[in-house]
Amino acid sequence: MFLCSNCFLLDKEDETYARALLVLEQCLAIQQDDNSKGMVLLGMSTLFYERGNFSEAIDRLHKIEDLNISSMGVRVAATEALVGIYLELGQDDTASAVAEVCRQLMDAIKLEIGTGFVLEVLDARTKAIEGLVKLVRGKLKKAESFFLGVEDDKYFTGNVALSYGEFKHVQHDFSMAKKLYGMATQEMPDDNKDFKIPYYLAACNIVSEEVEMAATCTLGQLESHLGNFGVAEEILTRALTIAEKHFGSHHPKVGVILTCIALMFRQKAMREQSSSLLIQEGLFRRALDLLKGPPLEVEGALAKDCRRDILALARGGYAETLCVQQKRKDEAEKLRSLAESAWRNPRLSLAEALDVSEHSSKVPVVDARISRVL
């Protein structure tokens, strides 16, 4: 059986959510084939994830590992989703371990049965997700070793193109990054493709809608880094529209996009020696309102680092807008201190992330899929 990734996710009302979950549970109960069960579990994990219930999403994805599944498409989709969630939660060691297990399994299968187009596509996806983990951890050389294996244009779709584009963006290869971001959005699977073709299966923050939003957002950031602020604003506004349409206007992912828009206005003001403090302040404040807490169902250790660096970036930017106001300097200092204590990016400091100029050797790249600063 096949499921559309949007079937149960666009309407976020509690009643619709409960009905959707009930349908999926009934669907799971009647499936005889483990591959079909795996596909239903992917759909359930996405539903839980978009409701903010990360723990249940992870549980459903792990259940796929216990099934006797012959489809590598299902296994790779589950791995990508697990890695994506763990990265969003700041559980980088766990994300790395999950990606490595899938890589070992893929290598064993290639040795046993050889290669073909489907396996090559899935292999490119496993390499790209491992490359993303290394990129998040600031290990650019190791990330490059994975992305070099997916340089054939036929693999440049969706998450592969986006992750490789982010790698090129971080390396200041802006022209290649721009090309890859365009490919990630233009070659998006259609609304049903996540579940129509086995090697395009996806779940949670790796589904096509998330990739479209994130690729649009990174393209907007790239134009901002190039100093094309009018184009950047237009593209980032489009990313915001995608996020609000898919998640609703009060979702933390909307806060991630708003943070990027606020940073774009900050970069523009610095580059043009102009002022947009009121705009920046409003955007950062709104972003913080949406980002301030982890998903409702995320507790304990899972909640500790959820969207930590995005929060730090937004707090740091907000502090910079307040510090010029004499009456709010104390508030600004508290925010700045809180942001700096939370910032753990291995590649650049918080100051470097906030003060991007045309001469900056490092630029921050916000990945809206996983809510991390690369």
UniProtKB/TrEMBL annotation:
<dbReference type="InterPro" id="IPR011990">
    <property type="entry name" value="TPR-like_helical_dom_sf"/>
</dbReference>
<dbReference type="GO" id="GO:0005739">
    <property type="term" value="C:mitochondrion"/>
</dbReference>
<protein>
    <recommendedName>
        <fullName>Tetratricopeptide repeat (TPR)-like superfamily protein</fullName>
    </recommendedName>
</protein>
